[in-house]
Amino acid sequence: MRKFWFFKGFVFIMGFVLLGGFVVMGLWNWLIPSIFGLGAITFAQALGLLVLSKILFGGFRGGHWGGPYGGGRQFWKHRMAERWDKMNPEERDEFKQRMKNRWGSRCGERREESATE
Where is this region: Disordered (predicted)? Predict the structure, then answer.
């Protein structure tokens, strides 16, 4: 069963990379030659552009997929949980009230549910 999920994940990632390469190649060949007068690119060059953009703009520091807490969303949840634990009851009530004022009453209800779990 584990091999099946590994294979399925591998196929999904390869499909995503292929689709990304074709999208980059298509957009480049549609826009760049007519705007800047540069030549068309091949599929391999489009994949190279994807890797280069990851290096320049995403880096290799974990980003969304890695990091010490499993990525971006988990990092912020962990950070907020730490801040919540350091608050005293008055600070928690003040924070809840600010969130209710900003996002409506449902925000405070959800926060209380997750705090009691």
Answer: 91-117
What is the longest distance spanned by two Cα atoms in the chain? 63
Q: Give the containing element (helix H, strand E) for 18.
A: helix 2-36
Q: What is the pLDDT along the chain (117 residues), one digit of tens a residue?
A: 777 788 888 999 999 999 999 999 999 999 999 999 999 999 999 999 999 998 888 765 554 555 555 556 777 888 889 999 999 999 999 988 988 888 886 654 555 555 555
Helix (H/G/I), strand (E/B), else coil: 42? coil
b (16+ CB within 10 A) / e for 97-111: eebeeeeeeeebeeb
pTM passes above 0.70: no
Residue 113 lies in a domain: yes
Within 8 A by CB and 6+ apart from 108, the residues are 96, 97, 99, 100
Range of the domain at 47: 1-60
